[in-house]
Amino acid sequence: MTGGEGASADRLRWQCRRGMLELDLLLQGFLERGFDALGEDEKALFARMLQLEDQLLLDWLMGYVVPSDPGYMALVEKIRRAV
């Protein structure tokens, strides 16, 4: 994630800090290495995804559960590839 995004970048960084170390590493790693390559719609979807429960996010990112929403599925794949 590049500098200059202001309060919204700080908010995303804070929301990527979760109650599980695994999620912290995956989400913060993606924020640093893959987030900037997303389009605006995907960035908004990522922000919405951060509102979901930790266990659901972990299940998606570890591949235990497949998101039914194709947008979330594509985003999960991008996160996996980036970290």
UniProtKB/TrEMBL annotation:
This is FAD assembly factor SdhE. Gene3D superfamilies: Flavinator of succinate dehydrogenase (1.10.150.250). Keywords: Chaperone, Cytoplasm. One of its GO terms (cellular component) is cytoplasm. It is found in: Cytoplasm. Signal peptide: none annotated. Transmembrane segments: none annotated. Belongs to the SdhE FAD assembly factor family. PANTHER family: FAD ASSEMBLY FACTOR SDHE (PTHR39585). It comes from Sedimenticola thiotaurini. GO terms for biological process: succinate metabolic process. It holds the Pfam family Sdh5.
